[in-house]
Amino acid sequence: MLNIAFIAHDRKKEEMVNFVIAYEHVFSPHRLYSTGTTGTRIMEQTKLSIHRFMSGPLGGDQQIGALVAQNEMDFIIFLRDPLMAQPHEPDIIALLRLCDVQGIPVATNVATAELLVKALERGDFGWRELVHKYKPGEPV
C-alpha cells in the first residue's frame, strides 16, 4: 500500500477529477491524500476515501511537503496550471524541490501522471515498499 497525493490548481481540478475517475480501480487500495478542494471534488465523484489537508495556498502544499520530507509520500500527481501565476509559488517550488531531494516521483501533467499510474498498475513501485520496510529506526 502506497501513499499517493493529488494536488490540482483551480483550472486543473476538473482534469484531475476525470483522471482519478479513470483510474479509481488503481488508486483504491492505496492511502490517498490531497489538498482541500481537490480532495473534496474527487470524493464527490468517486468512492475513494482521501485524507484532505488544507487548501494549497493556505498551507496544504506544505503539509504534503512535510510527508515528503519524512520520505512518507510515494508519489504525487500535481496538475499545475503553467499559464496562471500562483500566489503561493514559493510553496510549490519547495514541494517540488523536496520531491527531488527525496527521490519522490511527481507528475505535473496528465501525460506523466498516466505513466506513473501505469507503472503503479504493473507493480513497478515495489522499490518504494522497500524504502518503507528499511526506513531508519524501523524494525526489520
Automatic annotation (TrEMBL):
Asked whether the keyword Membrane is assigned, the reply is: no
Reactions that this protein is recorded to catalyse? dihydroxyacetone phosphate = methylglyoxal + phosphate
Q: Does the keyword Lyase apply?
A: yes
Q: Under which EC number(s) is this enzyme classified?
A: 4.2.3.3
Any single GO BP term? methylglyoxal biosynthetic process
- Gene3D superfamilies given in the database record: Methylglyoxal synthase-like domain
MGS-like domain: residues covered: 1-140
Q: Which domain of life is it from?
A: Bacteria
Q: Where is the active site?
A: 61
Positions in coiled-coil regions: none
> What does the entry list under GO cellular component?
cytosol
Output the Gene Ontology terms for molecular function: methylglyoxal synthase activity
Give me the residues that bind substrate, please.
9, 13, 35-38, 55-56, 88
Q: Enumerate the UniProt keywords alphabetically.
A: Lyase
Q: Which Pfam families match?
A: MGS
Q: What's the stated role of this polypeptide?
A: Catalyzes the formation of methylglyoxal from dihydroxyacetone phosphate.
Family affiliation: Belongs to the methylglyoxal synthase family.
Protein's UniProt name: Methylglyoxal synthase
